[in-house]
Design a protein that fits this description.
Elements lengths: L2 H4 L10 H15 L9 H22 L1 H11 L14 H15 L4 H28 L2 H28 L1
Helix pairs in contact: 2-3, 3-4, 4-6, 4-7, 5-7, 6-7
Length: about 170
């Protein structure tokens, strides 16, 4: 059973987050290991395993990026992030520019501006990802996932700068 089937959702990029959360809570109540405290050792073990699977599935589907990765994996597309580089020269240049920009962030206004611009770029990539997945353009979707992963790392770097500025 795949993650979408577990929550009785269509295997699609666009899902209703509220429905996902509602079904997660309901399944969590029925599968929780405490409900099997008086069961056999096998029942207890199965409850723990099912709960782990449920939590993993929820965490995967809850995030658009990991949901896209999961959809691509279901379609047989191996992302291999560490072994595959993005060969888009324009994106590689943008990465260098982002690195330089982040290195120069010294105050709140620069940080706020970087966050705003990064969010905008991430939104654009997510829209493109949604379109590629809907069209079955799996290789383009995989490339976009790789780009979004980079953007998420930049976001984490901005968060570390924010912590230093506090």
């Amino acid at each position: 059973m795949n993650h979408f089937e577990l929550f009785d959702l269509p295997a699609a990029f666009n899902i209703d987050a509220a429905v996902l959360q509602q079904r997660y809570r309901k399944l969590q109540q029925t599968m929780h290991p405490d409900r099997f405290a008086h069961g056999t050792d096998r029942e207890k073990l199965l409850a723990v395993q099912r709960t782990a699977q449920l939590n993993d599935a929820y965490q995967t589907l809850r995030s658009p990026l990991t949901r896209a990765e999961y959809l691509l994996a279901m379609r047989g597309v191996e992302l291999a992030h560490e072994q595959t580089t993005v060969k888009d020269p324009e994106f590689l240049m943008a990465q260098m520019e982002w690195r330089e920009r982040i290195a120069t962030v010294k105050d709140w206004s620069m940080l706020e501006s970087a966050y705003k611009d990064l969010q905008e770029e991430m939104r654009d990539l997510q829209v493109a990802l949604e379109q590629f997945l809907a069209a079955g353009a799996d290789q383009d979707a995989a490339l976009t996932v790789r780009k979004l992963k980079f953007m998420h790392k930049l976001h984490q770097e901005l968060e570390r700068i924010e912590d230093r500025l506090d």
